[in-house]
Amino acid sequence: MKLDNGKEAVYPEGTTCMDLFKEKTAENKELLAVLIDGKECDLNLPLPANSTVAFVGFDTPQGAEVYRHTASHILAHAVKRLYPDVKLGIGPAIENGFYYDFEFEEPISSDDLSEIEKEMKKIIKERQPIRRREMSRESALQLFEERAEPYKLELIRDLPADTVISCYEQDDFIDLCAGPHLPNTRMVKAFKLTGLAGAYWRGDERNPMLQRIYGTAFPSKERLEQYLNMLEEAKKRDHRKLGRELELFSLHEEGPGFPFFHNNGAVIWQELTDYWRVEHRRADYEEIKTPLILNRSLWEQSGHWDHYRDNMYFSKIDEQDFAIKPMNCPGAMLVYRSKMHSYRDLPRRIAEMGIVHRHELSGTLHGLMRVRSFTQDDAHIFMLPGQVESEVAAIIDLMDRIYRVFGFQYRVELSTRPGKAMGTAEMWDKATNLLESVLEDKEIDYRLNEGDGAFYGPKIDFHLEDCLGRSWQCGTIQLDFQMPEKFDLTYIGEDGGKHRPVVIHRVIYGSMERLIALLIEHYGGAFPVWLAPTQVTVIPVTDRSHEYARQVYDHLKGEGLRVTIDQRNEKVGYKIREAQVKKVPYMLIVGDREVESGQVAVRHRDQGDLGAEDLSNLIGRVKKEVDEKII
RNA sequence: GCCGACGUAGCUCAAUGGUAGAGCAAUUGAUUUGUAAUCAAUAGGUUGGGGGUUCAAGUCCUCUCGUCGGCUCCA
User: What's the pLDDT score for residue A4?
Assistant: First the structure.
């Protein structure tokens, strides 16, 4: 037996992991789970010969998973005690917690969670030993037949033939479970039920909806508190809250999912699009504008009528059907097709800040993150088949360059052929392999997302996280062999004949709305100077300095900075507080001393009082921050 | 769309089925202020909307709209 500290040890045959675990926990009480050759393993199993053994605590992914998975069993156990007729779904550990799905006879409400918590505490106190039982498929089926658990029966029937079927048992509670678990319930030290929500059985909306109870568990009350506090802090960065407080945008009943940008939000929008244009011109993109409303025939040709109709809005003009565009691609196709192309013209990169409307389900709307009308920083690249790899690579580079400016961390996913897709399996395989090879070449870590591609092709998605760690898709690169066929796009090749170009759809920001939401949360409302709606505010101390303050203000405005002046009859502290709350980067306090010296007293929102300096110095510093987009 | 919760002044929140209230913001006045809230006064509401129960509804029932947390979906 090799131990994780590199030492080797010999144990008699038949020694269980538990024996060794007891020996180890005597030294370190925080250990939770055993890894045999790197894999989690049940403690009651005998130690396999010649393996490497490691014991891990809560601060490893495996340890936390075992810990929280056990908490989810305690939850199910408590629910079973309180509601004997409840049917069990599944109950895994997830990032930061766990959940369990139940079908109740009568739906419970969030008020019932405290009762369930109480029962869970009881079970923990009872120090119920947790035992693993392996059984044949037949006896497992019989067991859950007797216990009237239809969902468990369905799970057992769907398990592959060679799976070892195991159950975990504590007191009279038994659950189908691969394990492993903690040895007893007392080891769960601190937990809290955090939410109640509906969830379709097996995530399929055709299946019945179960009630999902969310919770989290930590090895100590302090760490639980710490986590809950962190969540509270994160909520202060919520873009919906900051959006209102900083007067960036508003949402109204009159337009659900159709956000209103106020001046402050619009300023950020402008800066973002200005920067975007600079980068895209540099990367040899053209920019177009296409109509919002287009004839039904176009959508039939593009395939949207068949594949995307449920999400589209319609209108009738002169007795003819029109649709409000849900995507920009058909417009770009028409632009491409409006002239002849030589192979020498390709690749042709056509960008468009395109406004699209999609009828998203009402329950999915979420501030600016998920709306029904949004502006995509779209581009369609028309290219020779041989140019695909270099174009995809160039987009990834541009994406990384731009995300870096904001200081974003992102995750990459590769999405493959969905259920309702256009085109042949061969085309899909070819396209998917191509994207994969670019990712491999660039040595980018990515997650495979089976069946999540667009209906016209596979895609590489770039995900960013919001203040609560929820992930949102922003950038995407979608390969498309379909649109060129549908629109009969051609170019004249070297041979003088007509050939089919390949199309890539791509966005980098994703949508302006979602990007702005993420930026608000990313910066907690304290935007870098180049994006800040107000960059500098001038604060006169008394009305004796109003005239000088006005000169300073005019000067800054003349330099093209976004500046305000606070001439209200209030004390300096009050004005400073307000500017701080509004997260204005620079406050210039001018009183008798500054009038005298011809300087300004600079206060930075993070660094505080920086003392007096010449206005020209301050202007130089602010402009440098703007130009270099310093975060 | 589905499940659960919520909706009171611009914002944050009070109000056993019995006269809708506070703080901040706003307005007016006083105060001339030096690095995160000066004092006082005033105004502000068909309690999201419709219907019902009741002598009486912010509160109970019902429909509806919106919001929040999830599921599904997605930029």
Answer: 67
